């Protein structure tokens, strides 16, 4: 018993760890997306950001907060390419200047700013992204351990919101918001701990002290958290610890004020800045602020079209409802979330000087947003128990991610920037929303009315959520319900589809089609060179597939090649090199490779790819490659190398003879010189394509120059945001060609032609790799050509074995008796037993069926047609029937034709018989139903590779073996999946013509949209089930 408990605890910890890591990684990637984004036109930083970075630079250089020398030297130029806004004044006769911003963020970024100038600012932004990842991971952990949110829900909500505005935006902008939010989350984690000791108090004090040193504006939030902790710990009897904490915080407060007087000449940092010195330090909140005007922000912070966070991430519209749920359920420690959040929200409402045009949305509330993320997660875990509701919530999260990525790509590639005109972003989701939202910039009556309308709607949503959360059925834990993995998979497909469409539109608008046409005309004039280059390019990927096999011996060559080409094609149609995961997904789904082995080997080989090429480029032309790599590329290359080492260690552990995980990677799978040699040879073959394309344009490159151009182009793509590195590839390749003495205009033409050839190859071959070899990435869409051979069963010899005819029925009282009476009493010498499977009818169906002489097999509630057929087959098998048949109970099919239907079964000629309406006599059928039946039948016929003429017939017969073995996984319907299941496992199929007449009364349950939405995925799962594979 104890062993089981410990095993369960270990499993729970492992699950939590996975979701903590997953949410942290999503947050990290979401933040890193914006590293290269511009904050304003002509500069990557704006507003306060340069001063935070200059403070960090001054601390890195000489340990001083004085940035006068840095300003005089214009040390800001690598990250702020335009003139610097003056925010400081000389503090004394020496000309000493300090940034009017608290220094702790500068301390955190000082190690990064100690790097060479071009690498320092990307490293500083990467540091903030890492802090954002830590914040996401801790938030997930607190949601699960302190507030009892399911790990999957916590991970999805935290990860989704951390990779969207505003959390992702401030995970890369140089502001103290994310570090402050991390400090608040640490304090809340300590505050809600079940036990408290001295180490807890010390950690709590450290987190609280950090807040004003990050920015004095966080003091109200810090005060609320301190008050909550003092009250709780005092009430729980930890009074000595309360006095210790109070003493430490008192000393920290005195030190804060004294040091500010010493360093800044005032009680706050604002004494050092000419922003506010003329009006006094308190003018930071504005001169004669209008409380009523600022009160509008209570709602505007959420729904304003300019600075409201829900305008970018629609999931935040649910915040009032989520707060109502947490209050209604009286969640333990709810005030540890809600009170600091309220303090932060009120501070942002009434204290912040301005909202419009100075910062990206949400800056002043980021410090408490992770607490509200937990509130949303807790509410989602309570209310989103149905598949539809959970899907809607997931869509809201994904739309926020798409909006942020869209803006980050725009800000990186010349579109709207993060601060000055972020409101002009072309994100379709945001564009659809802002027409419905008030815009405080207009300051008109119409917008005030619209703001009031939104306030009423939000209060209404909170009231509805309060009432819903009070119902007992939603408070209990859910066993039903949501297949999180399937919905996440569907969400990923949806995001990929949206990105693909958006990228296509962006590409059409961005690509210079005239230059592309000129390049293609030149290339097509020399088909021999072009074919030689393409052959070399293709052979390069053959070698990479062989290298992958060397690492994963279980992986077939065809699937290795397909996975590589899928990643290549995906990278050319998706931004941020998002095609890379397709390589792992492909071999996991199609070749049965264990996910960890596929991921580790992919990371290792891709890292090796990059590093081998950089080494080749350095050998051939070190100056060019170093210049093309740039500071960000250098950081990325270092990350790539670190990932490669980590993957190598994973594979080494898996291939160890003593490792329990050695199975997926047999001994000998650890890469060596042969893999390095294959990788180097692959790059040299790609260089042949460079050589041939250059030759088409009349430029004869040497082998070394071709390698340099290739290495320069790939180095430029390491930090590419656009699909296929559009723009960065051409620029880097042109620079590489210029270093070889090629004129810029000619070099650009070669680069465009080279990229066009590679893109065309990647998309064409990547599309083929979706389907070839079998199974394709989408799985099996048809049954295999070679049918499974099943021994022919001996014919039933018992003359008294019955033929069972069952009829699924739901509220068929007016018709069922007539249908039952029309069934024959015997067929081919066998007695007929008629059963009615009552699917939770609420009329007199049962009484009418019994009166007509049928056996009734009831369902307690309405479970669906598929469930009724499944019940009927099971009951018939228990009767030791010679044959089993079923038809609808509504009179559309004639039970009198039962003898013809079961004859092939009784004669031993078939195991499964379909009564075909289209081969028989159709008295009448609605035209749209006839058309739908014909289309679906054609689909079934194509899927099963047999001449099926009626794939949706409701009149079918089975041999005893087929009836016992039939599987209907869907309660909604049976038609296609039953045929696929039986034919896929070798049962013999036949058809007989039948008579059909349209039902005279009643209503069909089939609705086309719902039918396709439910049946098509079920058919796909049936085609790819292990049951058919066996």
Question: Would you write up a description of this structure?
Answer:
By secondary structure, the chain is mainly α. It folds into three domains: 441 residues, no CATH class; 272 residues, no CATH class; 227 residues, Spore Coat Polysaccharide Biosynthesis Protein SpsA, Chain A. Helix content is 59%, strand content 5%. It is built from 39 helices and eight strands. Strands 1, 2, 3, 4, 5, 6, 7 and 8 form an eight-stranded mixed β-sheet that branches. Helix 32 links the parallel strand 3 and strand 4. Helix 5 crosses helix 15, helix 5 runs parallel beside helix 26 and helix 23 packs across helix 30.
Measured between the Cα atoms of the first and last residue, the distance is: 36 Å
Low-confidence segments: 1-8, 472-482, 656-670, 721-725
- Overall number of strands: 8
Strand content: under 5%
Total tally of structural domains:
3
> Mind summarizing the main beta sheet?
8 strands, mixed
Shape: globular
Pfam families: Glycos_transf_2, LPG_synthase_TM
Membrane topology: Multi-pass membrane protein
Transmembrane segments: 20-41, 123-143, 149-168, 204-229, 241-259, 307-328, 335-359, 365-384, 391-409, 449-466, 487-508, 528-547, 610-629, 635-652, 664-685, 697-720, 732-754, 760-781
GO molecular function, one term: transferase activity
